Description:
The protein has helices at residues 36-45, 59-65, 85-93, 115-128, 170-183, 190-194, 216-225; strands spanning 6-12, 30-31, 34-35, 52-57, 75-80, 100-107, 130-136, 143-144, 150-152, 160-169, 202-205. It has 226 residues and is α/β, with parallel strands linked by helices. It is globular, with a radius of gyration of 17 Å. The mean pLDDT is 94.
Amino acid sequence: MINNKFCSAVLLAGGTGSRMQMDVKKQFYKINNKPVFVHSLEKFDKIPEIDEIVVVFSESEFNEMSSIDYGISKKLTFAKGGERRQDSSYNGIIKTAANSEIVLIHDSVRPLVKIEDIKKVIADGEKYKAATLAVKAKDTVKIGDENGFFTESPNRNNVYIIQTPQVFSKKELLEAFDKINKTGESFTDETTLIESVGIRAKATLGSYDNIKITTPDDLNIVKLNI
């Protein structure tokens, strides 16, 4: 609980992992005899500021995965994923407790996230109504047109690589979801979504090793560091 505000964590574990080209989905790949998503789940279980955890599985895996005892001390709920990431996030959020005021959303395939970074972004999310872990871009970034020619060169000091967790006021986030559910718009992350209701997310500086498992190379890095 944060300043008497109930905090819910939504862990997204319903991705397809098509780019990995493995027989098992990346969130279920076992490292040290535990699926990747369980490493993330156990990390959130250790954080006092979080009051409950909702894990989102794809519909095809929901019955099997939601019947397992994961040995979690916090209240644990399960939700069925949707067609898009934003649908899965929404399904997780509406499964949170009625008295929940702060919502944290995390990609379960980022198991290297640091507990101290999670606590920092929770504090910023409570203060600013929207915050995300992020790191400064190390390389020069160029904006190109549809033909592959560069059109802009943003100041690298103002360019961030967005990560998760992302933390929001539940009330404002649901307002943003209600708006886009009517328009049918798609967003790749909730910080972009919440901008649609006039709220800017705070960048909470995190760690470069909080990588998302997307390719086999990413998985090898996680294996070495988990």
